[in-house]
Amino acid sequence: MAVETTPEIPLWNDPAHPVAARVDALIGAMTLQEKIAQLYGVWVGASANGGEVAPHQHDMEEAVDLDALLPSGLGQLTRPFGTAPVDPALGALSLLRTQSRITSANRFGIPAVAHEECLAGFAAWGATAYPVPLSWGATFDPDVVRRMAAAIGRDMRSVGVHQGLAPVLDVVRDARWGRVEETIGEDPYLVGTIGTAYVQGLESAGIVATLKHFVGYSASRAGRNLAPSPMGARERADVLLPPFEMAIREGGARSVMHSYTDTDGVPAAADESLLTGLLRDTWGFDGTVVADYFGIAFLKTLHGVAGDWADAAGAALTAGVDVELPTVKTFGAPLAEAVAEGRVPESVIDRALRRVLGQKAMLGLLDPDWSPVPPALDGADLDDPEALRGKIDLDRPENRELAREVAEKAVVLLTNDGTLPLARPRRIALVGPNATEATAVLGCYSFPQHVGVQHPDVPVGIDLPTLRDTLTAEFPDADITVARGTGVDDGDLSGVAEAVDAARGADVVIAVLGDRAGLFGRGTSGEGCDAESLALPGAQQQLLDALLDAGTPVVTVLLAGRPYALGRAVAESAAIVQSFFPGVKGTAALAGVLSGRTAPSGRLPVSVPRGPGAQPTTYLGARLAHASEVSNIDPTPAFGFGHGLTYTTFAWSDLVVDAREASTDGEFSLALTVRNTGERHGTEVVQLYLHDPVASVVQPVQRLVGYTRVPLAPGEARRVRVTVPADLASFTGRDGRRVVEPGELELRLAASSTDPRLTATVTLTGPQRHVDHTRRLHAGFVQEPAADA
């Protein structure tokens, strides 16, 4: 009887062997050129008719010859879906055909990793545009963010994408920075917990999450994009690094993107102590470090620390960068020549290659049964592209339902004199530049604002109702008069008189103000759209003041990417509702809050300034950063971090501290009761702040160390118990090591950074104790029915 034998396959293709052994065998069989080819990407755009991708021509790069490159292999494909509007099914077919071309062209049959942006949803034509990260922060709800990210990841994976360039874990240090909308907030613990939840969701779908921008980008001088970061080592360690630390340790992120910035003269892309010493040697990160777009070339052109492209490549590789993105520049011929000349050792290429190929192996890209056909095209007739058009839906009802949930939880009610919720108004004056603008809910990394604006003849691809549309549906019996008043930033005052007339003839004014997202000066918020001050753009403040003078109650609604000073409106508006680019269901979420159909439960992830010029400032300031008698500038915010009102009231009571002393390696246990004393269902957000009155180095007056959402029916009460590890009191000491010091602390249970409700004074005893990245990171919250409920 004949025995069937399986043809021998190369070790690197055999999933029965350990990944490390497979990778070592593959590296040993590769030429230098084949090794280098795995360390760069090529920027491509999917074909609109399902054909192979074409190289994307960018004004910063020369044309790429794929025929010349592909025989050596290719590490990554840059944004096949996110470069031009393409039907998702035809984009998936285009990617499939391109991967087939790549694998057949190189002798090892290695496909490329396809990466995409996913900062507010999969950045592809026709995909759901979710709320921006600043709205994620406003939810104070990691669970909903985790579920949203998993949905985004599933859509990406279904069409053949492997890696997502999100989340942004930069902590806001200056709200004038244009990319504030891309961040989660101004507090490292909030950024860390929400960002880690996003990573967990994305990774659960099989997408490699990419943490960015590592590190210090948001600490740029004067809030200017890509400016130097003047932060000290302690600010970096205690404010900017913790979110990355948490997302790697608890989120399982498999990639990190270096920052553009330089800190104390050292660019992040060439910082070996950061990318290797801290990230890998100390934290144990074993994934890939990818370049921010053109960031390696910037070592020569912008930072001036490299004399030529080979120097830039060598500096980045030595520091710990593994992959050049978005396209080949320094890691191509210049790197090969540098190795031949002995300027760059081949060992640093092998080190980066081991990480890249290891990740490809874990993605299944080296397996013998790997197929370029993505799940969404499984079983489809691939020979009839036009029959595929419209067959893949990336904006399904379940996506939009998740987008609605996030948007509703992110709406922040800043003030309310009782005007909200609106009680069936008969006449509404709907005024402002964002009242009838469909894209006012979108951030700069949404596909319509990032790419679609360059293709004005192509439909937006998703349903984007304006606030006028949703208010008309929400108040079907109301007479709604619309007046633009002024543009977002055109300074035009010619429409103010019409807006005031509409206000005088109405029962209530809804003034819809804020931003227009864009890129590099084409918007008032977004990458490269930095602000000189935090005054409302254009003539919007003049319009708002004129409406306040009209005598009709004004509800100020903000659709924005950053907080703005609102002048008189802080005290004179009947209500102020803040929403940070809330995505496809954003206007419906706002209409629901205005009518009372839904109750607001969002909290501010960034402080709202009282004046436009007292920057940079965040709630994390030390004592000298707060108002004093020796400066005429008062940085006290109009609304502090964590602030947000509801349509009910809550009473906090019965604080119990189990023991007021604990050792520096111990913990405290506290409990309090929160009761809904109003007549409506509502959600309170219990926030825990730590105040360290005496420390060996200057500390913020307070910092967030925990939080929990507490939903309560009218009259309902819950007992909230919290365990506070001493590790949460740690900070970077004078010797550069993280320390827990004995001494007195205040644990403030608060409704916001400006609204403490209950305070426990406790004491840490025993010796000073050093901790590291393995320290405890969280307070533990448990909720249970109150005994008298």
TrEMBL record:
Highest taxon listed in the record's lineage: Bacteria
One Pfam family per UniProt: Fn3-like
Family that this chain belongs to: Belongs to the glycosyl hydrolase 3 family.
PANTHER family, sorted: BETA-GLUCOSIDASE (PTHR42715:SF10)
GO MF term set: hydrolase activity, hydrolyzing O-glycosyl compounds
Keyword Iron set for record: no
InterPro entries registered for this protein in UniProt: Cellulose_deg_GH3 (IPR050288), Fn3-like (IPR026891), GH (IPR017853), Glyco_hydro_3_C (IPR002772), Glyco_hydro_3_C_sf (IPR036881), Glyco_hydro_3_N (IPR001764), Glyco_hydro_3_N_sf (IPR036962), Ig-like_fold (IPR013783)
Keywords: Hydrolase
Domain Fibronectin type III-like: 684-753
Keyword Hydrolase found: yes
SMART domains hit by this protein: Fn3_like (SM01217)
GO biological process: carbohydrate metabolic process
Name listed for the protein in its UniProt record: Beta-xylosidase
